[in-house]
Amino acid sequence: MKELPSRSLKSSEKKRKAVFVSAVAGALLLAAGSIAAGTVIVPSDFEVPVLLANGEVITQPWRVTADGKQVALVDSQEDAREVVKEVEGHYKSKETVKIEIEEQTFAEEMDLKNGDEKPEILTVEEAAEQITAEEELTVKTTEVVTAAEPVTFEKITEKTDQLYEGETKVKQEGQDGLKEVTKKVIKENGHTTEETVMEEIVLQEPKAEVTLAGTKEIPQEAELVSASIKAEGDGQLLTPVSGYRMTSGFGPRWGRDHLGVDLALPMGSKISAADSGTVIFSGAEGGYGNLVKIDHGNGIVTYYAHCSALRVDQGQTVTKGQTIADVGSTGNSTGPHLHFEVRVNGKNVDPMSYL
Ligand SMILES: [Zn+2]
Predict the structure, then answer these.
(1) CATH 2.70.70.10 location in the chain
(2) Domain at 145-216: CATH architecture
(3) How much distance in Å is there from the Cα of 258 to the middle of ligand 1?
(4) In whole angstroms, what separates CA 100 from the centre of its chain?
């Protein structure tokens, strides 16, 4: 058997126990400090054959270490590098990701002596599998990722008096934009531990959502109530005409009751509402001719008959003293005059006692 040159002769007994020489492949798996203290770094092409106990002659196997511990033995430095790539691939999440790894490969002095037992040397696949199965191992990767991300659209509110308060209407639909974001992502065993945005390029600006918000005041119920109060009279009636001559009083007349008073005036004289109220009739009605009826609330209703012209409409509210019609002689009448009636709870009363 041929005597092989062996550098192992200078190795201590302690070092003999530490397994075989190998390559430490890289920063991926470990810090450079993982190389056992006291080992000698030699060029990777420094290969010395070893005669093993079983008679086999081999060149130095390469050691892959992680966190200072040997995790696999492989045939060559090339294989050790290949293992690093395999492991890296295992934790790589996306095809497009660029993984930045500072590769450092070291060769350690072989500590295998002639006559030693044959160590277990793994294939690249076996080594990679064994390493990734190691749960306590932390594999840190730094990736530079470029990906498209949406730019969330803004929401803008514009005021408008075209809508009531509380009402809203979408004027313009919002649309997300698009940006290209480049990030540095640090992962440990495939899980992101740190993310830093390096660059953002807007590819498409977002379109804001514009909502119209009403400012028009909503009519309050209180205002409606006060409006109806305004339409109600104060009960103190005004004489609807001035400069009149009473031609007929209230009460019995020619064998029947006269339901109001007749006030003679020139044709076209203005007739005013005796009190505030709501016009409940404005039109022609039999012997009354053109007639206006006003409800003043509190059961009081006034009639203005024989008008030549009507100045108000049914349903309209009028204020005390407002012109409602012109004196005329329509209906059952012999000359221009105002026939004026006052009814309290449906019963005719003498208007003169109210004026
Ligand atoms: Zn009359």
Answers:
(1) 245-353
(2) Single Sheet (2.20)
(3) 6
(4) 39
**Helices marked H in the chain:** 13-17, 77-91, 124-132, 221-230
Instruction: Please state which CATH class domain 245-353 belongs to.
Output: mainly beta
Q: From the CA of 270, how far away is ligand 1's center (Å)?
A: 17
pLDDT (tens digit, 9 = 90+) per residue, 102-140?
Answer: 333 344 545 677 788 888 888 888 888 877 776 666 666
Distance 308 CA to ligand 1 centre (A): 15
Confidence band of 44 (pLDDT split at 50, 70, 90): very low
- Ligand 1 center to 337 CA (angstroms): 8
User: CB under 8 Å to 152, separation ≥6 — which residues?
Assistant: 176, 206
Nearest to 145 by CA among 179, 189, 193, 180: 180
Q: What's the CA gap between 197 and 182, in Å, rounded?
A: 6
319 CA to centre of ligand 1 in angstroms: 24
